[in-house]
Amino acid sequence: MDKLSYASDSSTSAWNTYLQQIERVAPYLGELSPWVDTLRHPKRALIVDIPVQMDDGTIRHFEGYRVQHNLSRGPGKGGVRYHPDVDLNEVMALSAWMTIKMCRAESAVRRRQRRHPRRSVLAVGR
């Protein structure tokens, strides 16, 4: 696995936790295992600097992050955080977990539709 140049070396970072989770489930993915490498790399990361004039007249710079992990299933919901304690690794992990969560939710909807093929969406909701 290639190391991302902008990822932290800290073994306790959220991103490294995500990578360990991917490694743990990779043997169970079967025919989807070639996609494991794609899950290890975010599609896009944006780092912004926000200058803010404080009440005392000084200008402080705040860093913000936005990460889109995977867009292969359509528009993605990436992670966005503005907080002094948040770093890029945490936002990358949140974005990656959102990718996994949305794939899981979509597969549940598909299974439900297969179980009730003749029922309308409203009938299934009741």
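[next item in queue]
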Amino acid sequence: MQITLSRWGNSLAVRIPAEIARNLSLEEGAQVECTATPAGTLELVPAGKEARADWMRRHFTQVNARLDGQAMTTPSAQLQREEERY
């Protein structure tokens, strides 16, 4: 989706379409993190989402490290299919 930047005082403003705002649960006055990426793109992230993503990344890294090296088992769905032979 392409949108047009508008002037707001000496700054430029990005207007977030209503559908996107609803999907992200954004309301007027909501805080967002704005970052210019090394790839030359603009990233807008609702405040708090970045922290949750970082926590999830750390959490699953710890879980994966704990499970690493454990023997893999056969998924229960596969066992059920084999028993039913369908």
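[queue empty]
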